[in-house]
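User: Could you go from structure to sequence for me? I need the amino acid at each position, not a summary. Structure tokens:
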């Protein structure tokens, strides 16, 4: 458990071997303190300790993201606190989240007919995006927070998005669509056969009344 050292107020716990830290005075110090935590439990304890020392509590700590299988993803040490976009929280495991979602999409597409145009186009785009993620992927252990943010920015540029969080949402939406199409077997023949010529393309004859030069 954590103890906060403050000249005006002290928050302590009854843990027999408490860890202590100096109360941060700036937003960047708060971010650095949270980024230095090693486990989700430590992050919660730091946040709870900070709440007990401030008259204006800081916003609730975002929950640790989970994968589609319900397993907590591993934070990579981002110090970024906000995306500056309302309703979009900073994702602390963007590389892992994208890898898993893209991989699941590719796995589901294997059940589509190989002749499916949808499968061919989505498979090509998803494989390309996955390769981009693998190229820029970094981990907390071997990189500084600035190097991590630089890698994320390079990833955003190559994926063509403003925020990596947007890429994650797009990947999840595509995966959901793939699952829906797979469940409905969208490639199957229609129950009601189309009328002859219903899907034939048509052409508009050129005008014969337009004046010639």
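Assistant: Here is the amino acid at each position, in order:
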């Amino acid at each position: 458990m954590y103890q906060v050292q403050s000249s005006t107020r002290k928050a302590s716990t009854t843990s027999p071997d408490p860890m202590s830290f100096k109360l941060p005075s700036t937003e960047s110090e708060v971010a650095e303190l949270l980024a230095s935590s090693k486990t989700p439990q430590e992050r919660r304890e730091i946040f709870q300790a900070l709440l007990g020392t401030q008259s204006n509590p800081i916003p609730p700590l975002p929950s640790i993201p989970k994968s589609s299988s319900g397993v907590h993803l591993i934070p990579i040490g981002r110090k970024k606190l906000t995306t500056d976009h309302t309703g979009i929280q900073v994702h602390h495991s963007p590389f892992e989240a994208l890898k898993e979602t893209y991989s699941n999409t590719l796995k589901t597409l294997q059940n589509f007919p190989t002749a499916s145009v949808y499968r061919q186009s989505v498979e090509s785009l998803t494989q390309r995006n996955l390769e981009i993620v693998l190229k820029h992927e970094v981990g907390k252990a071997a990189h500084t927070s600035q190097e991590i943010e630089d890698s994320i920015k390079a990833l955003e540029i190559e994926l063509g998005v403003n925020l990596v969080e947007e890429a994650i949402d797009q990947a999840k939406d595509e995966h959901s669509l793939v699952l829906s199409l797979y469940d409905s077997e969208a490639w199957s023949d229609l129950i009601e056969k189309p009328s002859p010529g219903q899907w034939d393309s048509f052409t508009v004859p050129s005008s014969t009344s337009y004046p010639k030069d």
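One structural detail worth keeping in mind: The first helix runs from residue 27 to 35.
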